[in-house]
């Protein structure tokens, strides 16, 4: 049943409800968690199972000792910030960590006082809901297409693409040997190898892969892991190789925001000669944990 048909059916049903009962029914529709059962699908269950497997292999913060630069940059933020991987930990999982005193949502403004403020959370992965939004609301039908995830990390984009899209091939390029092995473990366990490939490499050594990609995903991929000059060099390399006309580029945050932070350095790319940004409808309800602000960080571009 499509949207308009469903809407008409609901309006017809509401027209038959006793007027005195209608406000209560509307309130139930707006706030009931029972309706969230409609958003639980087999794909989500599988992704949650994968997240559980990965949590067992990683520390709570899901950061590796080799990621010292990212750890340092996180600690240097003006607002105290911790890394909470959104794929591994949804809101319920974060609540459980807090209950177990393994994580806090707040920090003390003055030692010994009761004055607190919210901690900042940062993630280098899409959440399960964001993956669903990406493949069902952002990207078109990917039948026969090749998607490349730059810095695939835990592989969330690849698993989401395998379950929520018809992409022919999903390739993750990951420079960390540890994360590469974790992804390969999941690919083997869940029999994804017919469509998912993991490449242990620096993306700047994968020109042919990017040149032939139909979709390239870059989620928070350089800012925390490279110094400014290295970021600029990497972006120049990306812009020189993601040139397939009509190819799509998904970024978090927007390229404009990323380049604005690099303006003090020379050689930032003029994206107007390379890409056009495509409008997205972020006003989508995906369940009670829908984070519109997080969805608004997802941007889509088309190669000119």
Report on the architecture of this protein.
The chain is of the alpha/beta class and 304 residues long. It has twelve helices and eleven strands. It has helices at 3-15, 22-31, 42-55, 68-75, 91-99, 128-138, 156-164, 177-189, 207-211, 228-241, 255-260, 292-295, and strands at 81-83, 106-108, 116-118, 120-122, 146-150, 169-174, 196-200, 215-219, 248-252, 275-278, 299-303. Strands 7-6-5-8-9-11-10 form a seven-stranded mixed beta sheet, with helices on one face. Strands 1-4 form a two-stranded parallel ribbon. A two-stranded antiparallel ribbon has the order 2-3. Strand 8, helix 10 (228-241) and strand 9 form a beta-alpha-beta unit. Helix 6 (128-138) packs across helix 7 (156-164). The longest helix has 14 residues, at 42-55. It starts with a helix and ends with a strand. The mean pLDDT is 85.
Strand order of the largest sheet: 7-6-5-8-9-11-10
What is the C-alpha radius of gyration, as a whole number of Å? 21 Å
Globally, the shape reads globular
Share of helical residues = 25-40%
Number of alpha- plus pi-helical segments: 12
Q: How many strands, what sense, and barrel or not for the largest sheet?
A: 7 strands, mixed
Q: How much β-strand is present in the residues?
A: 15-25%
Distance between the termini: 36 Å
Series of H and E elements: HHHHEHEEEHEHEHEHEHEHEHE
- Secondary-structure-derived class: alpha/beta
């Amino acid at each position: 049943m499509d949207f308009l048909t469903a809407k008409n059916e609901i309006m017809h049903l509401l027209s038959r409800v006793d007027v005195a009962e209608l406000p209560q029914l509307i309130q139930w529709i707006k706030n009931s968690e029972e309706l969230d059962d409609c958003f639980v699908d087999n794909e989500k269950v599988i992704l949650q199972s994968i997240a559980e497997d990965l949590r067992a292999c990683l520390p709570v913060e899901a950061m590796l000792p080799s990621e010292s630069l990212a750890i340092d940059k996180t600690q240097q933020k003006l607002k105290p910030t911790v890394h909470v991987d959104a794929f591994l930990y949804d809101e319920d999982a974060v609540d459980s960590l807090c209950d177990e005193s393994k994580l806090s949502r707040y920090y003390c403004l003055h030692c010994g006082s009761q004055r607190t403020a919210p901690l900042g959370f940062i993630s280098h992965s899409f959440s399960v809901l964001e993956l669903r939004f990406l493949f069902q609301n952002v990207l078109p039908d990917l039948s026969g297409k090749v998607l490349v995830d730059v810095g695939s990390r835990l592989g969330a984009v690849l698993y989401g693409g395998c379950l929520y899209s018809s992409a022919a091939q999903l390739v993750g390029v990951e420079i960390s040997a540890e994360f590469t092995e974790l992804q390969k473990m999941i690919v083997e366990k869940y029999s994804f190898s017919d469509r998912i490939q993991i490449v242990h490499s620096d993306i700047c050594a994968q020109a042919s892969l990017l040149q032939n990609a139909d979709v390239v995903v870059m989620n928070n991929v350089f800012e925390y892991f490279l110094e400014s000059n290295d970021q600029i060099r990497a972006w120049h390399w990306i812009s020189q190789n993601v040139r397939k006309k009509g190819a799509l580029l998904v970024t978090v945050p927007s390229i404009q925001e990323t380049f604005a932070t690099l303006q003090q350095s020379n050689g930032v790319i003029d994206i107007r000669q390379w890409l056009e940004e495509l409008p997205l409808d972020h006003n989508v309800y995906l369940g009670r944990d829908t984070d519109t602000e997080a969805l608004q960080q997802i941007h889509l571009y088309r190669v000119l």
